[in-house]
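> forwarded from #structure-qc
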């Protein structure tokens, strides 16, 4: 998922600007996949190929994001032996469900929540593309799928059109589609919390920490936003009517950790994407660094320095979730 002063956060215009960032991310991912940064045979069914080349530093940034999140998701699945559920909040056109199925690493159930308009678009893509629908049906037990214009429920995968700022409504819809509060639960948010006010994101984080006995929250978004480079990023988004309503939590790695620890999580870690990039499997990093010549090494470093991967755990079931690290 992915707002201008004016309009304020939560207004229709601001929400529309946030929704448009979903397309940007998916188009960038599709381009990076087409160059060979990572494999994703499903992204092509959601967005067109970019009209122009994306800069190498953008491709490497997305590579670090996708691989970093995937590393943590996989670690959680292995730690729980897939006896768990995943809730991707602000999922956009993400393809993780299909890729996990191909890797034989699906949780018991995979939920996605996003604006009803984005959920409806994703459902349209699924219904019109057999390559997307078939894997869902292969795993579905029982009668036909439960589906309306902006939600779908199947045995292993559910899509819910809901507003993350309205927690009672979101929780009700998740429970209707068989979210199990007793299961170890992984929540994933990529460039989502930054578009919510600090009160709204704290509400979502507290709800997650208090709802499940064992849980992990992965958050990928901006950091170090107080410097000049960060200010330029904010101004560029504001020009597109995109107000970063939650930017104050993105001041530093410490402010990111503090937000997690103050909302009921027991352990929290925050790494900027330079560190994540350095901790990814280096044989694959060497492979992707040969794909394109990178002229702007300093620009890549600035980009990586202004995004971070944070994760927090709460583990009443003593599964060793706090041991998940790079």
């Amino acid at each position: 998922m992915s707002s201008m002063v004016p309009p304020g956060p939560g207004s229709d215009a601001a929400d529309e600007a946030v929704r448009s960032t979903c397309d940007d991310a998916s188009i960038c991912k599709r381009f990076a996949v087409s160059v060979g940064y990572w494999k994703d045979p499903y992204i092509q069914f959601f967005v067109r190929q970019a009209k122009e080349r994306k800069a190498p530093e953008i491709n490497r940034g997305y590579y670090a994001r996708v691989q970093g999140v995937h590393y943590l998701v996989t670690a959680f699945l292995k730690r729980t032996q897939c006896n768990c559920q995943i809730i991707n909040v602000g999922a956009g056109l993400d393809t993780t469900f299909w890729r996990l199925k191909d890797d034989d690493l699906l949780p018991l159930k995979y939920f996605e929540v996003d604006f009803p308009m984005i959920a409806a678009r994703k459902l349209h893509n699924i219904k019109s593309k057999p390559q997307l629908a078939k894997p869902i049906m292969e795993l579905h037990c029982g009668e036909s799928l439960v589906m309306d214009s902006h939600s779908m429920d199947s045995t292993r995968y559910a899509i819910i059109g809901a507003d993350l700022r309205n927690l009672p409504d979101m929780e009700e819809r998740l429970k209707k589609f068989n979210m199990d509060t007793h299961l170890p639960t992984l929540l994933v948010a990529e460039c989502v919390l930054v578009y919510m006010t600090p009160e709204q994101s704290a509400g979502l984080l507290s709800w997650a920490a208090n709802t499940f006995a064992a849980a992990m929250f992965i958050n990928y978004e901006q950091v170090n936003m107080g410097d000049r480079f960060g200010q330029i990023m904010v101004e560029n988004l504001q020009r597109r009517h995109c107000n970063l309503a939650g930017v104050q939590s993105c001041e530093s790695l410490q402010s990111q950790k503090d937000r997690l620890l103050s909302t009921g999580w027991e352990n929290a870690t925050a790494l900027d994407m330079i560190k994540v990039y350095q901790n990814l499997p280096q044989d694959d990093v060497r492979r992707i660094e040969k794909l394109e010549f990178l002229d702007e090494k300093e620009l890549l470093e600035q980009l990586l320095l202004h995004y971070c991967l944070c994760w927090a755990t709460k583990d009443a079931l003593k599964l060793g979730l706090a041991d998940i690290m790079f």
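QC bot note: The beta strands are 85-89, 109-114, 146-148, 151-153, 157-161, 185-190, 214-222, 267-272, 307-315. Confidence is low (pLDDT under 50) at residues 1-8.
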